[in-house]
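Risk register update: the risk of archive-format incompatibility is retired. Evidence:
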Amino acid sequence: MMKKLISLGLALCFASFTAASFAAGALPYDESADAGADLNKALATASSQHKKVLVLFGANWCTDCRELDKSIKGKSAPLIDSKFVVVKIDVGQFDKNLPIANVYGNPIKKGIPAAVVLTADNTLLYSTKAGELSNARKMSEQGVYDFFSQVAAAHP
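Archived output:
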């Protein structure tokens, strides 16, 4: 009986570890990324593809950040892919990559997720200022699409 309980316990631990590992792989923000290098790569890609750069500031613990990520991969995907090179920057507990956020006017001041749109030469075109995306879980896919559609139209 004891061996069965131990085996069951080990199986449950393994299943939990496996599920947690899978979930971690699906998270939108790479917590160990070199954000500056990723941003530079996105700028170079945008230049060669004649697109803008969409910088998304957020964190994996943030439900709205995860929901925004789902939305931009859903209905908004064709719009986002045609207009922007996306780079996601992890802000941790508002203690990571803050110098990058500050360069663009601190768009995370009123909450995350936050967005910045840049030209390929790193000129700021748009920045969220008032937490416009901080309720992404309540925006619906259509609301997220409408938001980015307006941003794209304002900065062709």
